[in-house]
């Protein structure tokens, strides 16, 4: 490999290198730069290796940062009474999803998350209403939260499923019709949607997302791992199994 040999020769011939690049003469700097350039041209894979190593270090630093944030907000993430909890309530792994009903990737993840939780059998699944994509997102979350407050967890899950798969606009008329289809009083649901307690749930979820540095959907917290963005089913399964192995 040319660079180590060249550096050895340069260190022997140019004692100023021992004191650092700042102490080199202009000619010495030029010679050193030329050696580095020649080495990289002959061995361009080194650049790829360096970039890969940099990415690994950045990913590790980000994971450590996420872990600190999750530890600092553990109760709000996993044990808020305002969240719907599904799957196995005593599962050994908890998956928390921050989602928006109008988010295309949340909709794409929906069936895969259902499959993950259903087929595994030992996952506790927590949904956090996190509307960030405009008025329709907000109305949809207000609707779902209101249904849960008025009619309970089973009714919420049906409303959630319907909202995720809803085609067309999520406006007042559509949501009123959906309430009727689900067997609820549309006037009661509409009145509840504008209440302070419904708004408080949404504000709390937004505050938690800010604390966790979450700014997009879907975002998953899988036990001790933060997953920012959509991950296919096989990838989710690998993360879950990795968390189990780590204990």
The CATH level-2 architecture of the largest domain is identified as: 3-Layer(aba) Sandwich
Element-by-element helix/strand order: HHHHEEHEHHHHHEEH
CATH class of the largest domain: Alpha Beta
The main pleated sheet reads as: 5 strands, mixed
How many H/I helical runs? 11
CATH topology of the largest domain: Glutaredoxin
Supply the number of structural domains.
2
Q: Provide the CATH superfamily of the largest domain.
A: Glutaredoxin
Mean pLDDT: 89
Estimate the global geometry from the Cα principal axes: elongated
Description of the molecule:
The chain has 247 residues and is of the alpha+beta class. It has two domains: 2-72, no CATH class; 75-246, Glutaredoxin. It contains eleven helices and five strands; from the N terminus they run H-H-H-H-E-E-H-E-H-H-H-H-H-E-E-H. Strands 1-3-2-4-5 form a five-stranded mixed beta sheet, sandwiched between helices. Strand 4 (219-222) and strand 5 (225-228) form a beta hairpin. Helix 6 (135-151) packs across helix 9. It is elongated, with a radius of gyration of 27 Å.
